[in-house]
Design brief:
By secondary structure, this protein is of the alpha+beta class. Helix content is about 25%, strand content about 35%. The protein has 2 domains: about 5-110, Pseudouridine synthase I, catalytic domain, N-terminal subdomain (Alpha-Beta Plaits); about 115-220, Alpha-Beta Plaits (2-Layer Sandwich), CATH 3.30.70. It has 5 helices and 10 strands, in the order βαββαβαβαββββαβ. The chain is elongated, with a radius of gyration of 20 Å.
């Protein structure tokens, strides 16, 4: 096995129709892209050898991402401009590689370091107002925690730690649309999904639909205003 010396961090966008890919499907698509690009990727040891690859925090199905990333370990150095050109040529529409850089091979993984998430959300409702949504979100935060049942298991989130700053609510570009900006922080229980947060805040008494959710920033640093 060749010595693993280089850890390449790849930044990409997930949008359009491909926002409906699952996290596992995105991982597989990016691994195929690395192979098509003919990067000198490292392979793990053992019976089930596989590409040395580490994804960033998962996106929920249907959620777009503008600053997503993954790490792949290489056995030989490639200049960043060459690696980027190869990946872009091997890419597919709506999964666009936008940048690459080398990071310390011994650094912590993306899922441990990139815990700050900025979201832009668009929802539609004839009954819900901006003031009503803002009040509901602040009331939820004041409770300090919320629970989500997924796969038959209940998970509780500490809302005192889950926000980098209060949500921002504003009128959308058409009647009945509301725009929401969220600056969230992944906590011990994991990332808080915007859809789950809205469901807990609004409750079941008001009709509303989620038009779009986009993670516009994923960072080691707190999301700025």
């Amino acid at each position: 096995m060749a010595e693993v010396r280089f850890r390449l961090r790849v930044r990409y966008r997930k949008q359009g129709r491909l926002r409906f890919l699952s996290h596992l499907e995105v991982v597989r698509a990016m691994e195929r892209m690395v192979r098509r690009a003919q990067l000198p990727y490292a392979v793990s040891q053992g019976f089930n050898a596989h590409m040395r690859y580490a994804p960033g925090p998962a996106l929920p199905v249907g959620t777009g991402g503008l600053e997503e990333c993954f790490d792949v370990w290489l056995t030989a150095f490639l200049p960043c401009d060459e690696a980027l050109a190869r990946l872009q040529e091997a890419g597919v529409g709506d999964l666009d590689v936008v940048g690459v850089s080398y990071v310390d091979p011994r650094a912590k993984g993306l899922q441990a370091t990139h815990v700050h998430e900025g979201y832009e959300v668009l929802l539609a409702s004839k009954a819900l107002t901006c003031a009503g949504l803002d009040e509901a979100l602040h009331a939820l935060r004041a409770r300090g925690e919320m629970s989500v049942v997924r796969g038959g298991k209940e998970k509780r989130y500490d809302l005192t730690q889950a926000f980098d700053r209060p949500p921002e609510v504003r009128e959308g570009t058409a009647p009945g649309l509301i725009e929401l900006r969220l600056a969230l922080r992944s906590v011990e229980q994991g990332s808080l999904r915007p859809a789950a947060l809205l469901g807990a805040a609004i409750g079941s008494g008001i009709d509303w639909t989620l038009e779009s959710v986009t993670r516009v920033r994923l960072s080691e640093d707190e999301v700025e205003g």
